[in-house]
Amino acid sequence: MNAKSAISKEIFAPHDERMLGAVQVKRRTKKKIPFLATGGQGEYLTYICLSVTNKKPAQVSITKVKQFEGSTSFVRRTQWMLEQLRQVNGIDPNRDSPEFDLLFENAFDQWVASTASEKCTFFQVLHHTCQRYLTDKKPEFINCQSKIMGGNSILHSAADSVTSAVQKASQALNERGERLGRAEEKTEELKNSAQQFAETAHKLAMKHKC
Fold first, then answer.
1. Domain boundaries, the chain
2. Topology annotation, domain 3-149
3. 90-129: per-residue pLDDT in tens?
4. What SS3 state is found at 80?
5. What is the pTM of this model?
6. Do you find a cis peptide bond into 57, omega within 30 degrees of 0?
7. For labelling alongside 2, which of 10, 50, 59, 192 has CA 20 to 30 A away?
8. Residue 142 forms beta bridges with which residues?
9. Which helix (H) or strand (E) segment is 171 a member of?
């Protein structure tokens, strides 16, 4: 079981929560933390996790989870409600970068993800979650690459493609209908001509017979 699956099972499942995404991080600028604040357990790994309650109405949280060196278990640390998130800073919109900042109502952290790809995936999940669960006071996403914010654009593009295909199909059916209509008119004309010819021939035959 990988670390994120273990966090989901150990930290969130017991509280009837579902983990939506997580990113392993390190601080870009180290904070001076008293020895007692860490429990004297030395080095640790940090994960920023996004979770939602299974119970309605859904509550979405961003939680800092740590795993101390030499331990196989995880510890829930600081937690914020999604509504407290004010700004998500991707640092550089022009290149893949693992750095990012999170600004909350009462906190500001500067992070470096384990990889730029992992940060990108987490940002996409975070952005989608904000759009889905927040009706107002949505956080500001700045200095983010277009692929992170592109979920809606992709959907719109797909919708446009479908609409275009439907319009083309409709136009083709209309053109086909017009051709069929013209063919039916021509058939009717030929039928009438044949009928008129038959009547004329019958009249001539009767006249000749007389």
1. 3-149, 151-209
2. PH-domain like (2.30.29)
3. 999 999 999 999 999 999 999 999 999 999 999 999 999 9
4. strand
5. 0.67
6. yes
7. 59
8. 89
9. helix 151-209
